Amino acid sequence: MKNKIIAIIPVRMGSSRFYGKPLKLIHGISMVNRIFKIVSKSKVIQKVLIATPDKIIFDHVKKFGGIPVMTSNKHKRASDRCSEALKKFEKKIKKKYEIVVMVQGDEPMINHKMISNAIRPLIKDKTTHISNVCSRIKKQSDFKNKNTIKVVFNKKNDALYFSREPIPNQKIFKKAYKQVCIIPFRRKFLYDYSKLKPTELEIRESIDMNRILEYGKTVKLVFSNKETYPVDTLNDLIKVRKITNKI
């Protein structure tokens, strides 16, 4: 993969469910540092940025050797924050990337191989503009949990809808899938996304990908067998600490 590929990790202190979670420790290092280290192991990524509206995170990232980009505090969606960070960084270095991999700053259980797999559809098919990792839901409690973003898809593995509600229905949850927030965009597609007006289902569900679907665009899904859990609450953090290893 010789394409120019950059990863951006959007993080902020003001999570409504768990304030300050990017700086919470997992095995002695902050969650944002852990994710930065994981993404940096990827051989397909040339550069890793951390996009944040918070000076405390900005300073923390500089301290551990990352590249922070200060963004507006008005963004409602992580994808919009990434778009702003990319624009600022490209202007600074006078260089354009081809693919932008958004890795949410609350996914401490991912690994670098998942990033390579997520990018593959964009490398193989120039008509694919965005992909999103997903995995099977294994527990009924996760299926019912509104912090678990569920996704349904067609026979081409294109997403049909993302929801915080149990979909397709509770009787067949063992065939249900959840979003894992590793999301590669083509550069232009990310910029075009940020120019689109937020949509009703995007706002109701608080899910970036629904903006894309509501405008009639395609999100290609990439499946992973790795068990991962995002950190949305203190209980999530406690669980992740127990089931992850040091990096």
Low-confidence spans: pLDDT under 50, at least 5 residues? none
Average of the residue pLDDT scores: 95
Adjacency order of strands in the biggest sheet:
5-4-1-6-11
CATH-derived topology: Spore Coat Polysaccharide Biosynthesis Protein SpsA, Chain A
- Count the domains: 1
What top-tier CATH class fits best?
A: Alpha Beta
Structural class by secondary-structure content:
alpha/beta
Q: Judging by the overall fold, what is the CATH architecture?
A: Alpha-Beta Complex
Strand content: 15-25%
Q: What is the percent of helical residues? A: 25-40%
The H/E string reads EEEHEHEHEHEHEEEEHHHEH
**What is the CA-based Rg, rounded?**
17 Å
Describe the protein.
- The structure is a single chain.
- With 247 residues, the protein is an alpha/beta fold.
- The protein has one domain (5-243): Spore Coat Polysaccharide Biosynthesis Protein SpsA, Chain A.
- It is 34% helix and 21% strand.
- It contains nine helices and twelve strands.
- The strands form three sheets. The protein has a five-stranded mixed sheet with strand order 5-4-1-6-11, with helices on both faces.
- Helix 2 links the parallel strand 4 (47-52) and strand 5.
- Helix 3 (78-93) packs across helix 6 (187-195).
- The longest helix is centred in the middle third of the chain and has 16 residues, at 78-93.
- It is globular, with a radius of gyration of 17 Å.
- The model has no long low-confidence stretch (mean pLDDT 95).
